[in-house]
Amino acid sequence: MNAAEQEASDVTQEAPEVNPQYLQQLKDLDIPEEEAKKALILTGNVSAEEAAIFYFDSLENQNPDTDDDDDIYYKMVFVVNMELSMGVGKIAAQVGHGAVGLYQLMLRNSKTKEVADKWEEYGAKKIVLQGSSTSHLLELQALAISLDLPTYLVQDAGRTQIAAGSRTVLAIMGEEEMVNKVTGKLKLLN
After folding, report:
1. Which of 41, 110, 180, 189 has a CA that sits 20 to 30 A from residue 24's CA?
2. Where are the domains of the chain?
């Protein structure tokens, strides 16, 4: 056990209490429970976002002897339009539309297909974040496009909770560092 692992182990034994809401949010991101607890404790139990960043950064640092190409990670991010009154099930369905739509779009182009393949190879990381409004989603999409990141904007058919044509979710995929330039300051969806 190295010093960092020992420190994490010591911290876990001394302060096992973590915020249960933050813990659940991390588990919803497919972070193993024990790893989520360690990340929360080591980041001062401040927020799920801080702990998630810590966890994913520590994953990146686990294999320092790999090639440069192996240091590049990919993720798909979904920004939910929070100005719309969507229930949990509706949001889940809209995020699903975003995932399928963006993935299908990427498979049609040889350059973006390669990115989609690498994304799958590295665990197909997916994050759901909060966007403030339709105009916010459009601004984020414009920034993503300017950075040459593939995007897919979901427009609702209007059959249930919201008006037809409402822009519900923006999906973005690419190298994690580039995607963070677009969405890095947004909050996780609770």
Report:
1. 180
2. 3-60, 71-183
What order of strands is seen across the sheet that includes strand 167-175? Answer: 125-131, 74-81, 167-175, 151-155
Q: Alpha helix locations (H) across 108-164?
A: 110-121, 134-146
What is the sign, positive or negative, of the torsion defined by CA atoms of 147, 149, 150, 156? negative
In this structure, are residues 128 and 29 in contact, taking their beta carbons and an 8 Å threshold?
A: no
CATH architecture, domain 71-183? 3-Layer(aba) Sandwich (3.40)
- Regarding pTM above 0.85, the answer is no
Token digits for 153? 């904007």
Give backbone dihedrals phi and psi of 130, rounded to 5 degrees, phi first: -100, 130
pLDDT in tens, 43-61: 777 888 888 888 887 776 6
**Which pLDDT band, with edges at 50, 70 and 90, does 69 fall under?**
low
